[in-house]
């Protein structure tokens, strides 16, 4: 598949994630998230580094029906993505769960490439659909306000 532009690298925050939709080979629409992998050096406010972004399917390895980014960005602590449900931490660069109930598990990665300040989806297995979450997923929306332990 051709590379498809997702967004500008400068629009990916360092303390949260960007959610977007993809389709896979079976035409199923899924959500993925862009995550900054390193602090961005700034020069007058503009990003200097053009790498430092990774991409993962948007679900926790503890309960796979739970989204990391529930539509407004997943929380991040010390450069790791945090699952709001039970506090699992995932390393931004490897996707490995470093702490929590699924410690040692890995998020599913999608290949992205940064060119001229834009982030492109360059994964042969997925096609870009659009920015934002899947609108019709009522199931997980309900669970976002229902923290279980
Ligand atoms: S669902 Fe993510 S830590 Fe439990």
Outline:
The chain is mainly beta. The protein is built from one helix and 13 strands, in the order βββββββββββββα.
Structural commentary:
- Strand 4 (42-43) and strand 5 (46-47) form a beta hairpin.
- The strands form 4 sheets. This protein has a 4-stranded antiparallel beta sheet, with no helix packed on it.
- It has a single domain, classed as Rieske Iron-sulfur Protein.
- Residues 141-146 have low confidence and may be disordered.
- Helices cover 4% and strands 36% of the residues.
- The chain is built from 1 helix and 13 strands; from the N terminus they run βββββββββββββα.
- With 149 residues, the chain is mostly beta strands.
- The structure holds FE2/S2 (inorganic) cluster (FES).
- FE2/S2 (inorganic) cluster binds at residues 60, 62-63, 66, 83, 85-86, 88, 100-101.
- The site of FE2/S2 (inorganic) cluster has 10 residues, from loops.
Distance between the termini: 41 Å
Q: Approximately what portion of the residues adopt beta-strand conformation?
A: 35-45%
What would the CATH topology be? Rieske Iron-sulfur Protein
Task: Please give the share of residues in helix.
Answer: under 10%
Strands, count: 13
Give, in spatial order, the strands making up the sheet with the most strands: 6-3-2-13
Q: What is the CATH architecture annotation? A: 3-layer Sandwich
In the CATH scheme, the class would be Mainly Beta
Describe the largest sheet: 4 strands, antiparallel
Low-confidence stretches are 141-146
Q: What is the number of helices? A: 1
CATH superfamily: Rieske [2Fe-2S] iron-sulphur domain
Instruction: Tell me the radius of gyration.
Output: 15 Å
Secondary structure class reads: mainly beta
Please, what is the average pLDDT? 87
Bound compounds: FE2/S2 (inorganic) cluster
Number of domains: 1
Shape: globular
Q: Write the element-wise H/E pattern from the N-terminal end onward.
A: EEEEEEEEEEEEEH
